[in-house]
Write a structure and sequence with these properties.
The complex is a heterotrimer.
Chain A (H helix, E strand, L loop, with lengths): L1 H37 L3 H4 L14 H9 L2 H32 L5 H10 L5 H14 L6 H25 L3 H9 L4 H12 L1 H17 L2 H6 L8 H12 L6 H17 L9
Chain B lengths: L3 H4 L1 H9 L5 H27 L2 E3 L7 E3 L3 H7 L2 H33 L5 H13 L2 H11 L6 H9 L12 H29 L3 H9 L4 H30 L2 H6 L11 H10 L4 H30 L1
Antiparallel strand pairs in B: 1-2
Chain C lengths: L3 E10 L2 E11 L4 E5 L6 H9 L6 E6 L2 E2 L10 E4 L11 H11 L4 H15 L14 H13 L5 E5 L7 H18 L2 E6 L2 H7 L2 E6 L2 E6 L1 H6 L4 H6 L6 E10 L2 E6 L2 E7 L8 E7 L4 E3 L7 E10 L4 E7 L2 E7 L10 E6 L5 E3 L6 E2 L2
Parallel strand pairs in C: 3-8, 3-9, 6-7, 7-8
Antiparallel strand pairs in C: 1-2, 1-4, 4-5, 9-10, 11-12, 11-14, 12-13, 14-20, 15-19, 16-17, 16-19, 17-18, 20-21
Helix pairs in contact in C: 2-3, 2-4, 3-4
Classes of the chains: A mainly alpha, B mainly alpha, C alpha+beta.
Subcellular location (chain B): Cell membrane
Keywords (chain B): Cell membrane, Membrane, Transmembrane, Transmembrane helix, Transport
Organism (chain B): Mesorhizobium tianshanense
Chain lengths: ~270, ~300, ~350
Amino acid sequence: MIESKRHRRLIANIATYTVLVSLSAFCIGPMVWMFLTSLKYEADIVTQTMQYIPSRITFDNYVAIWTQSGFPLLIGNSLVVTLLTVTICVVTGTLAAYAFSRFAFRGRDRLMLGYLVVRMFPAVMVIIPLYVVMRGVGLVDSRFGLALAYTSFLLPLFVWMLKGFFDSAPRELESAARIDGSTRLGAMVRIVVPLARNGLVASSVFIAIAAWNEFLFALMLTTGQGSRTWPVGLQLMVGEFQLPWAFWPPAASSASSRSSFSSLSSNEPWFRG
Amino acid sequence: MTSSASRYLPFRALGELSETRYWMYLLLLPSLVLILLVIAYPTLYGMAISFREMRLTRPGLDGWVGFKHYAAMWSDPVFWIALKNTVVWVTAAVVLELALGLLTATALNRDLPGTKIFAVLILLPYFLPNVVAGHMWALMLDPRLGVINDILVRMGVLQSYKAWFADPNAALAATILVEAWHGFPFFALLLLAGLKSIPEDLYKAAAVDGAGVAAQLRLITLPMLKTVIAAAVILRVISLVNSPDLLLILTGGGPGDATQVLSLYAFQTAYKEFNFGYASALSVVMFVILMIFAVAYIRMSRITKE
Amino acid sequence: MATLSIKDVRKSYGSVQVLHGVDIELEDGGFLVLLGPSGCGKSTLLNMIAGLDDTSGGDILIGGRSVVDLAPKDRNIAMVFQSYALYPTMSVARNIGFGLEMRGVGADKRKRAVEDAARLLQISHLLDRRPANLSGGQRQRVAMGRAIVRDPELFLFDEPLSNLDAKLRVEMRTEIKRLHERLGTSIVYVTHDQIEAMTLGTKVAVMKGGHIQQLADPRTVYERPANMFVASFIGSPAMNFLPGRLVRDANGVRFEASGVSIAMLAGKPAEISERPVILGMRPEELKVAARDQASVTGVIDVVEPTGPETMVTVQVGDRSVMARVPPRFAGQRNEAIFLAVDPASVNLFDPDTEQRIDI
């Protein structure tokens, strides 16, 4: 009996590892292939017999993408847009999250639900009129305009995430500070926000990565070099350069950090993204 | 730090304001204004556009046209193809992702040594931007350079290299595969959280009562996961119907209209033809269909729960 | 130090009224305990005194000054919370001095005040630590230090001992009493623990459903409860209730029930009529007696020795009565037992209104 039970467990363990290993291979295989390809010479990519392990290694692809395609400009634009998005969300979203967390007022739950429902709107349904509106006020092809557009779906998310962190900071601390001589604003700035610091950072990173990777809004709302972000640049490059082999670093770095973050912190509402 | 409040007059005035009953509305105001400005107003405006003629390429054409666009949609064969493709594409992708996700979550939930590393690796695709995921697979499925063709030929599955995105059926299947690769970690993570929330005692009790592995799965795991699965499916369906990114990159709707879906059709109508009126009407119809589906689905999954 | 006047204070959330016109006067240096089950409105009342909740009506005066329109910071009060609410990012010293810091007191003066308070509470050796590194009792002392250092007009305590274990709770209770006697500052103290109310209060307000049931000194609340709710809420084990009748006979007025006959009053006061009543007797007022002196006769059901005393559950008619008897009580289950009770110690309640009847 014991013998057969141990036997069964061994089989189950082997099956589990088989599943995990093959799924992991399925998941990272394409990324590994991309990486290997990016190290090959053009001639070794376009060959009759497929080279699985590069016979020679070169960094020419990386040099080329950096020097010939205006990539630094694209990355710069992405950085600016991301920074603007995070700034707008942090300034307005922190206040709203605090209000939702601390005050009971009529219609609060409905308003919070409204913030969530807004995220269900199809992107195309928002993009088209947003383009018309922004063209009217001269915000098309502007980094600020794009950041503003991003807040349409990132601000609600930020508010919901941060509210959870504010909720876990005890209310009594705030009451104590107010009795000790702080105003509500003082208690919020001195006591509550420092306590929710980690949550503030986590929520900001979350929306920063989303803004960094966004494609559809950027494609529609940017037309020139001045505001184009890297995902759009990449898409356009594919036509010019055939395939830009070395495009993966800005994406892979953010993806891998997100991935490790999510699997390590279990209660993060990443799935709303 | 000591008395920054008293040193800066504006801050102090704001502090006094924070003790009034208007404070919470002041806190909400900035975000509310922003959301009304960038979502509520454009959405309403978009609905209005769908009843108007608006082509940015021909500024002279303007004015209300009533239900003209909706009538045009009814007799537009591409709309019906896109609708059918949306249903096929979303259904197939969600089913595939759910199955892979369930398998992954069950394996990860056994908590064998090294599970954390596998979890990180398996999650990677989900956080890869659509553009990158799309081009990566475009490279691997390339008719001349694609490594997948090479592997399949070596394995003897294919006689020669295949142009995956040139054959209508193969194109749809290939995009479903890419989407499944990109999206199944979403299900894996959600289902894993669901599995972890099932109390260990339930399994112990079932084992004591003599239930085998199959009975445990049927009687405990699946019923307890039902809500999580229902929630994951609806979230994923909404997100898939709404985002044309991956198809835009992989096929652009082709060959012909073989991989054309509603969101992509609407986007291209606006982005390529600048026919904003028709594009808005398309997206409104898509939104309405999606909402009807969502409400019906939520009703149904509640009934089955009880 | 100041008086506290609560005048017809009301509170409602939407259409739900949680406080119905509360009136309390507390003398300078007094110790008011707000006592009641959860949801009775005692914490709401405390929060309104603190200014953390708005009043829906009525007035609150501290030292004769109306405070309802003042922010908490302007009320010159200090508060000790159930969770202690120590600022986790600050040292113990800064926690204690935070109120002075907010009021712009200079660093030197602040340091002296903090050290004095710490000495009084015997936490001088903890001043450099963070709250996370303190035990429950130490946190409690820091929270009290933060309150006393400001020398406010009024202290507010919100169930301060309920997070401590039984032994520490007794110790800190004594500490609070000592502190009150030493500082002489008026205190409002919220609790659901009747022993804290009895030991600490100079005045106890028993609350239920947003109403004050009785406001009196602890002795009166215990011995002469205003109604059956107060009678049953205070005292453990609870007061025994026996339904019966007041009857008049040749010797005077008696309470009669199955197995019970108590001579209440000699003579025949004309104003007392025969009527149904409920008799309330504290367990310790029931004494084992000889058969001919007994006013309560019953059968022993359960005997529970606790050490210093023994609790006996007695079946009297169809009712259970609990008696607190000396430790070496020798009775057995199913034996008959005879109990005497001092008529002056019992209370009578109206069966309909549940209010106390004075005779």
